[in-house]
Amino acid sequence: MKQQRFSGLFETESCTYTYLLADTDTKEAVIIDPVLETIDRDLKLIKELGLNLTVAVNTHCHADHITSTGRMKQRVAGLKSAISKFSGASADIHLKEGDKITFGRRFLSVRETPGHTNGCITLVTGDESMAFTGDALLIRGCGRTDFQQGCAKKLYQSIHKKIFTLPEECLIYPAHDYLGQTVSTVGEERKFNPRLTKSIEGFVDIMNNLNLSSPKKMGIAVPANLVCGVHDV
Ligand SMILES: N[C@@H](CCC(=O)N[C@@H](CSS)C(=O)NCC(=O)O)C(=O)O
């Protein structure tokens, strides 16, 4: 009997992945990194599947899009928002290393993976078959480290100590992909990630020379995400 429903959902403007996980027996569900623009799509799916959404969690305080967790709380009775205690953002649940987000008989455990921001977390399924890495580890890449307390050394250590120590076959689901890639594995990223296969000095050098422009929505996204995407809840 299948006990877990998993959906990967995509928001095209910010290239953000939202993930929905549910225990198919109890119908309890968790949503990871939901985006304001796709709130209707996500809530429609949840309703169609007859799920009871209990937690909406952000892997960090996003700088490129506005979260829908606050608006979801207004539309889903009993829903709780969650984010790292180091994010600086308000939420019902402030997460730290080792915490568990339970849905039915399943859970996600929290691994702190700072470096892109101070409050970045990676969420790992109880059986360590899936890891939701937010903007820490991307497929063949990683989150930038040039704002929001970003630190390349910290990110390198986070990924090597908290993500690359997971089983080789553990599936990696990042918060973004800009090339259409949907999933990787710990083993693949350990072997082929062009940034993380370097020494820490080489990695820092790459990160200091990315020369990326700032996310277009940064000025509105960060203040909004500090209050779950809304200023009135
Ligand atoms: N062009 C996009 C922003 C793209 C970007 O900066 N992505 C971030 C994650 S969202 S803060 C990132 O870490 N990218 C790493 C990389 O190597 O691309 C926009 O304007 O929103």
TrEMBL record:
Pfam families: Lactamase_B. Gene3D superfamilies: Ribonuclease Z/Hydroxyacylglutathione hydrolase-like. Keywords: Acetylation, Dioxygenase, Iron, Metal-binding, Mitochondrion, Oxidoreductase, Transit peptide. Its main location: mitochondrion. The keyword Chloroplast does not apply. It is found in: Mitochondrion. The keyword Transit peptide applies. It catalyses: S-sulfanylglutathione + O2 + H2O = sulfite + glutathione + 2 H(+). It is an enzyme of class 1 (oxidoreductase). Residues 15-176 form the Metallo-beta-lactamase domain. InterPro entries: Metallo-B-lactamas, Mito_Persulfide_Diox, POD-like_MBL-fold, RibonucZ/Hydroxyglut_hydro. One of its GO terms (molecular function) is sulfur dioxygenase activity. GO terms for biological process: glutathione metabolic process; hydrogen sulfide metabolic process. Belongs to the metallo-beta-lactamase superfamily. Glyoxalase II family. Homodimer. Monomer. Interacts with TST. May interact with RELA. PANTHER family: PERSULFIDE DIOXYGENASE ETHE1 (PTHR43084), PERSULFIDE DIOXYGENASE ETHE1, MITOCHONDRIAL (PTHR43084:SF1). This is Persulfide dioxygenase ETHE1, mitochondrial. It comes from Amphilophus citrinellus. The lineage of its organism: Eukaryota, Metazoa, Chordata, Craniata, Vertebrata.
